[in-house]
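Design request, tokens follow.
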């Protein structure tokens, strides 16, 4: 009797046409049956937002590919509860073009899609390639690693409520120096707000910052990337700090 292939849900925050999700889908098809449910267009830095004040629409874009006029979290919610017909064995979000590490994880739509899966009790991975606008993106490096990690995760099973956040150096696979299990690091962004003047003399602002500077934090994702290693960081969905909780129970208010 043949064993049913695992069902893998793929999403992202760059849109269903993005090169990263196409590379990821192709690679994961060797691991299981892949269904893509991703935003119509780019939703970068959308964090864990849900669309509550307008209707969502799902469009079938091809065999096993659906687009949603909403956020990455919307996509996961609709996929699991409506589109797929059964719970997926794994959720993989990405491949994002650009890092999602250090403080980025609080803003990232890529990571939030995986977190939504973890909230539902589904093993979930977020994958990002540390490539920037002027760089040639080595998606094959990231997609190959994502496929190997996906096999391992489905074999080992993640504890409930955890996500693996993966950042891959933008290098040919032969130049990547292995992988490292890491903690979140810290970025130095420099000038976060850029002030400009429009042609009518009115001020406007861009939220900016130098994305490439990392603090030297031993064992961190930033340090692993600087060493040309893949950084794999386990993130927990439960944000409670239990030691502080215990100490606060003795407060007199």
């Amino acid at each position: 009797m043949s064993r049913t292939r695992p069902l893998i849900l793929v999403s992202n925050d760059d849109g269903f046409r993005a090169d990263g999700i196409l590379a990821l889908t192709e690679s994961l098809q060797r691991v299981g049956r892949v269904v893509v449910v991703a935003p119509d267009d780019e939703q970068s830095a959308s964090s864990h937002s849900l669309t509550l004040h307008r209707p969502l629409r799902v469009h079938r874009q091809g065999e096993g590919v659906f687009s949603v006029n909403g956020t990455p979290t919307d996509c996961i919610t609709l996929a699991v509860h409506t589109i797929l017909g059964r719970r997926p064995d794994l959720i993989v979000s990405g491949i994002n073009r650009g890092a999602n590490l250090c403080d980025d994880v609080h803003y990232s739509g890529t990571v939030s899609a995986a977190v939504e899966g973890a909230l539902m009790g589904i093993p979930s991975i977020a994958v990002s390639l540390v490539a920037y606008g002027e760089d040639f993106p080595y998606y094959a490096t990231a997609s190959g690693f994502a496929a190997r990690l996906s096999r391992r995760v489905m074999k080992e099973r993640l504890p409930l409520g955890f996500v693996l956040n993966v950042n891959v150096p933008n290098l040919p696979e032969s130049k990547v120096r292995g992988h490292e299990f890491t903690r979140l690091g810290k970025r130095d962004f420099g000038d976060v707000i850029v002030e400009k003047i429009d042609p009518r003399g009115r001020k406007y602002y861009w939220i900016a910052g130098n994305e490439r500077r990392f603090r030297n934090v031993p064992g961190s994702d930033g340090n692993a990337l600087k060493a040309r290693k893949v950084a794999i960081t386990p993130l927990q969905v439960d944000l409670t700090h239990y030691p502080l909780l215990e100490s606060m129970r003795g407060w007199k208010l």
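Comment from the thread starter after seeing the answer: thanks! The first helix runs from residue 19 to 28.
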